Amino acid sequence: MTLLEDLRGFVVDGNEESRNALAGKIANRLVLDKAFPKTTFMELVLTEDCNLRCSYCFVKDKNPRRMSWNVAKTAVDFLITESGRTENVHILFFGGEPLLELDLIKRVIEYANGEAPHREKKFSYSMTTNGTLLTEETCRYLRDSSVKYLVSVDGTAETHDRHRKTRGGGPSFHLIEKNFRHMKRFQPWQGTRYTIHPDSVGALMTNVRVLHDMGVNQFIIGPAMAPDVPWPKEAMETFAEQLDNLVDYYVKMQQEKRHFRLGMLELGSLPSLEEARTQSEDALLQRCRTQHEGEWGCGAGRGRLAVNTRGELYGCSRLLTANGLARDGLGRLGSLQDGFDVHARAKLIGKRESARTTCLACSLRDACTGGCPAVNFQFTGDMYRPSLLDCEFTRLYLEVQEKAQRLLVRQAAEKEEPREKVCSPV
Length: 426
What we know:
Distance between the termini: 51 Å
Shape: globular
Number of helices: 16
Number of strands: 13
CATH topology of the domain at 38-188 and 299-350: TIM Barrel
Strand order of the largest sheet: 9-8-7-5-4-3-1-10-11-12-13
Order of helices and strands: HHEEHEHEHEHEHHEHEHEHHEEHEEHHH
């Protein structure tokens, strides 16, 4: 007897159709509780609109559709339920540009904080924004509400304004620049998502220095990845040179104990002074090369979930916009109204390393997780098969990470005291 057949015997009220539906929901709940990790991180896609029109944005079809209060409130309740007994849960406000819906953000935070004590939860909040709407009043509210944000900025005005234009086609850097004084005042630790485009990759090091001097402390740097953004050999070579210079700058900032973080160099665990003294450099580098052994994918659909403006569930916001995934049953994971589609969710996260057939012979297979599933699908039509371009980027990142590790190991070994670690509040 199947679980569903067994449950039908316990559902006695209603007609056969309603009994079957209720039994199905109970079975679904039991499977979810046993087979899937708890959801503790939720992206709320508050709007599909934006006041900018960035050329490389993965949200291509901007429109005025926005999330209603009913959907937002239901999403918070859903997160509380699906997190189970886990106390700490997180909401990321996303878009479009989430600050177009500041009033909705305020209502969500007020409701979640009100529910937290008697639901035994602790909420934290973050946001990715283009920075143009960060007025002094808004920055004060975000600080008072403990909402940490990252600003998308691509360097100086000359570089940034090439691809991050306003809805009317004008520049946008000056809109962020005028806000930066109070941004820094109310959130002293400033982080940025910096997207590199092949036509300006040669300015990367200069741009990082300028932004760091302005007061940006943390850089999450990644290339513009889309089939319509070609990366010729020359651009890749320039990128490698720029990253090499960036490593030197990073190590220098660590030596001077400056507040500077670079995400791509800190994905692996850096060695402690004791490890540097007692282990060989080769052993430490081997640890770097095997940091993702046996892994595939990311947190999408596992502990992480995205909710769109209509209340539909997706693994993440990037999967939400990956056209074509729905035909394979990998896009939509259910809805707030009906709950998870356990079959779709299992198909998304159920496969492991064995599904990465093109990675099996790769020498770096244990140093990466097989690429972003949504980007893989966008380039190759297969979530488990990364593009050759993505593989080249992975090789570059590992090379610079290993260089940074070598330099920091030697630096730590020369000191009598452990290297001070700079902690980011973002």
